[in-house]
Every structure is written in C-alpha cells, then in structure tokens.
Amino acid sequence: MNVYPFITEILQILLVLAISPAFVGWVRALKCWSQGRTTAGMLQPYRDIMKLFAKDVFLAENASWIFRFTPYLVFGTAVLAGGIIPMLSVDLPLSATADVIVLVALFAIARFFTTLAGMDIGTAFGGMGSSREMTIASLSEPAMLMAIFTISLAARSTSLSQIVQVIYSGQSVLRPSMAFAFLAFVLISLAETGRIPVDNPATHLELTMIHEAMILEYSGRHLALIEWAGMMKLTLFMALGAALFFPWGIDNSGSAAGAFLSLVFLLLKLAAGGVVLVLIETGLAKMRLFRLTEFLGSAFLMATLGMLSFFILE
Amino acid sequence: MEGNFWSLAPWGRGLGEGYFQYSDMNLHIAAQINSFLAALVLLTAFGMLVQKRVYGLIHLFAWQGVFLSLNTAIVGFVAGKHHLYISSVLTLSLKVVLLPYILHVLINRLRIRKEVETIVNIPMTMMIGIALVIFSYHLTAPVRELSNLVTRSTLAVALAVVMIGLLMMITRKHAVTQIIGFLALENGLFFAATSATYGMPLVVELGVALDVLIAAFIFGIFFFHIHTTFDTLDVDQMARLKEGD
Amino acid sequence: MTASLLTVASWAVLLLLFTGFVSLLLHRRQGLMITVCFSIACVASALAIFAGFYSVSSGSTSQVIIAVGLPDLPFHLRLDPLAGFFMTVVGLLSLIVSVYSFGYVRHISAKRPVTRLVIFYALFLAGMLMVVLADDALFFLISWEVMAAASYFLVMFEDERVENRRAALLYMVVAHVGAIAILLSFGIMSGLATGFEGFHGYTFDAMRQAQFPPQWATAAFLLAFFGFGAKAGIIPLHVWLPEAHPVAPSNISALMSGVMLKTAIYGMVRVAFDLIRTFPWWWGALVLIVGLLSAVMGVLFALMQNDLKRLLAYSSVENIGIILIGIGLAMIFTSFQMPLLAGLALIAGLYHVLNHAMFKGLLFMGAGAVIHATHERNMERMGGLIHVLPWTSALFLVGCVSISGLPPFNGFASEWLTFQAFLLSPSLPSPLMKLLIPMGAALLALTAALSAACFVKAFGITFLGHWRGPHNPHIHEVNLPMRLGMIMAAILCLVLGILPTIMIDWMDKVPEQLVGTSIGQTAGAFGWMWLTPVAREHASYSGPIVFLVILSVIVVAWLLLHVRKGSIRRVPLWDCGFEKVTVRMQYTSTSFAMPIRRIFGFMFTIREQVRLDPRAAHRLFPGTIHYYLRVRDRFQVWLYRPLITASFRISRLVGRLQQGRIQAYLIYSFVTIIILLMFMR
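ok -> structure tokens follow
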C-alpha cells in the first residue's frame, strides 16, 4: 500500500488546523483596512484561542452534558471535513469516505448540536439563535443541494476528488452552468458560515445575532474549540469553493513537489477569496431575517438555473 | 472484487460510462459564447423579475441590452450576416443608452424611487419563472431537433425571456415596471429572432426598433397622465375606472 | 430448508394467536399475564426475524396451501424475499417493543386491567405477519382486517375519553374506505386473471400469470394506491394519523407508526412490482409526486405541533413520503427499462422502511417514557428533563439525530441513497423528466433540513432548558425493560447507519426478485466498509471511517485539553443584571417554529390574535396579554370539511326515504326487485 496519500492527508489536516486562524486574521485585517481602522494583526486569532485555552470554564448551573459535548463534536466534524476537501492533493484517503453530500451533512450535524447547546441553558437568546439558525439552514440546504447537483452533472460524480479531476481536465471554458452554480455557492457560503448579509460575526446585539446567540454562554476551552471550528469552517468553505470551481493547481501526480505547489496555490486562492469576502461584507448591509427568504431564494434560483442551463445550453 | 480500496487504479478512470447518455459538450467556441450570453440574458431576466428597486430594474434592463447586442454581433460574425452588425449597434444605442435614459428622466421627474410593490411574493415569482423556463424548454424541443444552427439551443432561453417579461407585467403593480416588462419581452423576441433564424430582415428590425421607441414615448406620456390623475403610478388605481361602482 | 422457513413463520403467527388465549386465562393475575404474554410475543418476533432474515438472504421462495377458510377457497401462504424483508422489519420492531412493553404495560396495569391491551397487541402483531405472508386476495384482506380491527381496539384502549373514541372512529372510517379500495383493486385483478366467472383468480399466483389490459391495470393500481395510501397516511389521506397516534398507548403508537404503515408500503410494492409488473412511467411519477408532497407537508405540519406524539405522527407522514420517493423513482426507472437504477432506488426506499421502523419506534417509545414520567403531552409545559431522565433523553437524542438524517446514524444512509438515485435521474431518456426530477431532490433536501429543525425543537423544548410546567412534579427515570427496549432500538439505529453495506448486501435479493437486478455487486464491491451505489468514481461513503474519525478527534481533543487540570466552575446564569430571568422567558415550541411558520405560512390556515386587557390604563401598559394561535391543516379546511358537509346532506336526503310505515319499505323492496328483474331478463 502506498503510504504517500496518508502522509498528505495528515499534513493537510494539520495545515487546515494551523492556517485557519491566520485566514480569519487576514479577513479581519482586510476589513479593518477597507474601513480605515487599524488592525490587530493577522495573528490575533491565534492569541485569542491561546488565551481561551488557558482560561477556566464557567458553566451555567443547569448546563447538561450536551452543552459540554458539543464543542468537541463541532471540532471533530470540522477536522474530518478538513480531511475530505482536496487541497494539497486529489488523492486523499479520507476523500473517498465521504462525498460532497456527506460533507454537507457533516456541517449539518455540527449545526444540530450547536443549536441544541443553544437551547440547553434555557435563555431567550439561545433559543432565538437556534430557531433562526435552523430556519436559515432549512432554506439554504435545498439551494446547496441544487448547486451540488449542477456540479455533479458536469463531473458525473459527487465524489470531491472526482469532481476536481474532471473540472480540472475540462475542455470547456465558458460553462454557464458552472457560473450559475458558483454564484449560488457564494450566496450559500455566506449563509452557512454566518457572514454579512445573513449574520454578523462581529455583533453581540440582541436582535441581530444568530450564531453568536447560540454560543453566548460558552467560555474557556469550550469557546476556544467552537471558535477554532468556526474559523476552520470559513476556511473550508473557501477551500471547497476553490476546489469545485477553480481547481487549478491541486496536485494530481502524488509527488512532494506537487503538494508544495498546491500549497502555494491554495494560499493564493485563500488570499484572493478573503479579498472577495471582504468586498461583499463591506458592500452589503445585514438583512432582516425575513428578507433572507429572498436572499436564499435567489441562491436556489441560481443553482436551479445552473442545472437548467446544463441541459438547455450545454 | 474484494480488493483493497486504495490500491486500485487512480481516480479518474472510467467515469461510470453507460449511466449518462447526454452528449458531451465539445461545442464550437462561438456556440459556447452564444450560450453563455444566453445564460446571462436569462439571468438578467430573472434579476428583473426579483428586483425591487426601480433603478436596479433599469440597470438590469440596460445590461440585458448589452448582452443582447454582443450576442447579435457574434452571431452576425459567425453566420456572415453583416446586417446583424447594424441591428447590434441599434440595440446598443436604443436599449442600452436611450431607453434607460428616458426611464431615468421619467423617474426623476415623477420622484418615484421607493421599492416597487409586487402582487405575488418574490420566492413564488421565482418558482413560477423556473417553471416557465422548463416549460419553454419542453415547448422548443421539436424545433431544436429540426434546426441545425449553432444557436438553436438558445431558442428555449429566448422563449423563456419572453414569458418572464410577461410574468413581470402580471406580477407588478407599478406602471414603470410594466413598461420594463414589456421591453424585456421585446428583448426576448429579438433574441429568438437572432438565435432561431440568424435575425430578421433589416427592414423589419428597423421597424420594430422604431415601434419600441414610439411605444416607450407613448408610455411616458401615459405615465404623466396617470400620475397627474391618480397621483400615483400604481396601476391598481385603474380598477377605479370600471363601471358600476 | 425453504419450506421450513415458512413453517417457522407460521409458528410465529400461531404463537401470537395463542397468546390471546393465554391472556384470557391469566386475566386474574395481571402481573403474570404481562410476563408470560410478552415473553411469548418476544419468542414469536424472534421466530419471525429468523424466518424473514433467512428467506431474504437465501433468496428463496416457498409456498403452502392451507385448506382452511371458505370451501374451495383455501388460504395460500408464501414467503419470498419481499415478504421476508417486511417480515424482518415487523419482527425486529415487535421484539423491541415487546421488551419495552414488559415495563410499559406494567405501569398501565397499576391503573386499569390490561387484558384487552395484551389480547389485541398479540392479534395486531399476528395480523401484520399474516398480511406479509398472504398469497391470495382473500387471506390478505382477512389479515388486513384483523390488523385494522386489532389496532382500532388498541387506539380505543383508554375509551373513557371522548377524544380517544373519536380518533378511533376516524381511524376506522379511513381504514375501511381504504380497505374497500383495496378490495376493488383485487377484484379487478382477479376478475381479469381468470375471467369473471371463475373464482380461482383470487390467488396472487393467478394475477402474476395474467396480462392486464392497460386501462384496467391503471384502475387496479390507482385503487390499490389509494387504499394502501389511506393506511400509510399519504397526504391528503393523513388525517387519521395525528389523531390516532397520540391517544394510543405509546408502545402501540410505536408499532403502528413503525411497522403498520409499512405494511401499506408492502402492499403498494407487491401490487405494482409483483402482481402488475409492467406499468407506464406516470404511475411512478404519481407516486413520486405524492411522496414529495407528503414529505414536505408532513414535516411542516410536524414543526407546527406542540403535542410530542402528534409531532411524531406528522413526522411519520414525512417519512412515508421519503419512502414513496424511493419507490416512485424505482417505478420510473423500471418503466424506462433501467433495472440497475431501479434497484438502487428501490433499495433506498426499502432501507428507509427499515430505518424508519427503528428510529420512529425508538422515538415513540421515548415519548411514552416522557409522558409516563411527566403525565404531560404538551411540550410547552416540559423542559429540562435531561437532568431527571438521563437514559431516556440520551436514547431519544439518538432517535432525533437518526430521523434528521445526520451521519453516522441510519436515517442518513437511506437518505443518501435516495439522493444518489435522484442524481442518476439525468440518464432518463425523457428531456422533461431530466429537468423536473432534480427539483424533487431539492424538495427532499428541504425536507431533511426541516426535519432537523423539527427534531431540534422536539428535543430542545422537551429535554433542555428549564421545566416550564406549572409545578415541579416528582419525575424519575423509567424502569429497566423500557430502557432496554429503547437501547436495543438505539443500537440498531447506529449499526444500520454505520454498516449499510452489509444490510444492502442482505436486502439485495428483493430488487433481484422485483426488478431483476442486484446492486450488491457494485454497492458492496469494496468490502463492508465502503458503500458505492453505482461506481466508486461516482460516489462513495464509508460509515465506519466517518464515525471513527469523528470519535477519535473528539477523544484526542478531550484528552489534550484535560492534560492541564483546568477546573470547571458552576455559576448561576448571567442575567445581564436584570435579576428577573424566569423560566417563562425561554423559547417555547411555538416561538421556535415562528420563523418557519411565517415563511411557509401559505401552507396552513393560521389564525393568530393578540388581545390586550381592555381594563388597562393605556394600551402600551396592558396588565395581561392573550395570545391566540391556531394552525390548521389546509386539507382539513379545503377537502374534508366539504366532504363532511356533502355526506351529511346526502344522508339527510336518504333519510327522507325513511317513512316509518312498513308498507313503504315493502314498496321499496318490491320496486327494487322489479327493476333488477327487468335488467336480468
């Protein structure tokens, strides 16, 4: 048995763990620059996480085991997802264990437990966040599936490695279906990772927060795990978008040099993705909750148009 | 077949042949550009369907004109029909510059910048729009099999754009959005003409362009009248004109 | 061997029938009766599992004719892979629920005699096994009626309450309307099989041999679909489900929802794939559309419920919908001669049958435990039960995760297969279907996401937070047999989710029998760890690895973080300095569902009123606020109310015939005879 893919796999998981705080730091720094503020530096997320790990845990009196278990589970699914998405190489052992539908379901299980943890303490905020989160999820999931459907039509597969390979070697340059699917994917990613205009990651205002409302009662290492997993999730969605729509540079050969080259490409793509994210976030305002049906409806529309144009135009 | 999962052939061999029967998309490059522009035209049509702001609508309409004229020029180049260049330029000047300008002026005069009221809610409108696309695909399927032009696959899109324009006129209350819906409908017809038969004769096209222009002017005059009579552009007010109340 | 499997199955039925008599004998000693009867039920279920399991894995078919019943119309029994599969499902859940019932029925027996419950429980199980075994229309319908009647009395068990009697009556009416349709369907098929003169067309074998003219086949299928659909609770025939399930004892609800609905699915599959065999594509499209409608609307209705068992009942409608999606896709693929894809879709549907039996059984048992402990069915008055019911809450959570379709539990495995079947639909030749069927996949995704929301609500409101009820009652964990039953179901949920390949390999004989192909060759081509429905390049899923990786990351993270001896400090909840945080400020079931209620409001008939206290000094400072909300099924308003009015009107018209004088009645009979004679001439 060839051990090389396993080494790449472990390296990739470590890489995701290591660079995701830096990526979030990069996004925050860009945002500060674009808004004329001074930044705390790209390394601030590392310092935040270190600080949280060092602190004691304050637990509400009626917190149950679900509340304490959730951070570990959320972290675990994020790590597994980090092993599934092709970044350093196409040939990843874990990539075969789960196709893109399983990947979506992995994020869903993390969300399921986060919402339960939000309801565990019994505060109004937690319940509010959970209710909103599940509402948004139920609207974004059909759109996500449609986007996946469109991509898997082109690649004839739902396996991520396969999709990357097929799109990499695709003959066609201008594919309306992929363009539509990409637009849909961008909108869905904003919803799934809780960015503006769906949710504001920086707010703690009662009426606007969604994700923060659920994790309001966390502290210490629990909070550190959840924050870290959240950063990984953002990074992973970027990497997923890069792998599905811009797979150029991901190593196909299985050599160390190839893996290094993919790393360089990955960093470049992440940097560019961060710029796009910041442009979107500074350009848009947060939407009211009930305007999100239109937002996610448009995501569904895009994905469906992608699917239709695959049959009609290609 | 109990083999080890990882020790088998690398990824990418034998893409599950036999399960899919649609033809591969090794299309001509022009056809690709054509279909990409068709997708963009469809996208702008849907954008207009869901856009709530009047200015946004006008901008989307202008963009649709841009894609349309680009497409006309490319079809003209591929098919060697040089009169299509003229209609391309005509489209550009009329639908991208002149009509949006007139609408802009109109809106500024009448001071109607607020959001446009819709009758049916927007997600529902989207679903109907998608259904219309599927329907027009179904409708044009026989034509697609008869025709052998490179642009034949875009006929479904053209028909869908026509229907979406009509849908827009139905679902909106505001007179300005109705005229934009009408113009979008006309765009769809124009697109159908270029993609189905490589364009109509130049005389016909000139005539249509003139008609559209005149229609726009007449609409504009009517707007003023509606506005001065009812003090609003909400066409629901016209219901008051019926007898028997 | 094969004939003996059928004998084993028959023994299971006979044992169950025998249990009925035993319970009558032991009427005086309730405790002993419960122990003896449920032990026999466990043995009988184990026998059914054995027979069913081996008949599927060996792929064998055995038949026997028993000379009982009407003269010249003997009963035919048959055990083939399809019957064996459903028999295994029935047996598995019966075994689990019987174990649970040891404890549950003992609790009930403290308050009232349970002889009736035990008798009809045994009859109910026997009826379901007989339905699956039947190989002729007569025996099938007799078994069907035994099952329906037994379950009617079970729903009626606590008959002193009006709502229970009404629910049972409604159930009986719907069941019989359905049974009439099934009878007519069999009538058509048996009539066409041998001509309307002979009686010998009533066996399924005769129907299998026959070639039906298309229009008659369509009529037979539509009648059967309607009849079985009424039992399965497809929309719009679902009205009895949310009424009957909540009032029945919880072990009965578990069986009714977990397996009785599945006998209707069995009937549909049997009629479509086995008896009629060749059908046009639009039958499949009809099943698919009804399935999608049931799935989406079922879960939306479930989200709106505040009664825990009503919520579960509506969620059964949803899951029946998901099963029908698989079966509808299989029918479409079959009619276009694509046996491989048909096999995949059929496996997806049947696997969901098994999975739904497990997790819905588990959830109903959990709901029974909660209701037993709290004497409360309304979720709005529960909360915080995770601290007092640690076992029940953990097991209920397993059910919630499974039903929400989350890996690595079993609901995900079957939903994943259904998605794969959807993703292969572009290979259909019809261009319109290529475009329309993917929309169905989107609806299925919507269903999955909404059901996750629904069960976050169910679990979160019931078990998490603080107790919302008026007083704090003494709540204690349920007894051992109840826990044991739930543990068995929970373990099966996990195992079926992690090892789908083994189960699919076992089930593979069913599509081989029905659509003539097996997908085990491809689905399990890479050993038990890998599920590859079509080809490895197309999609693969490995339950064990997903489970192990998540588990190991959790363990490693936990260990690393507990190297340093960090302390956990328990503190009171931070109340923002407000000092008046009460349990009434928690989100409730109604408020949790509010955004979804608003977004999908057009599907319901909603009446919402806020009334302020008129005596208040100012409307901004009301003393009390009354909030009234009623969410109703649109079907109730649109479909059933007109039907009820119409039937009342007709009965009033018929009532005019009643004169009260004997001569009038004689005239009616006389005129009827005259008219009949004129036709018969």
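Chain C touches chain B through 21 residues (CB under 8 Å).
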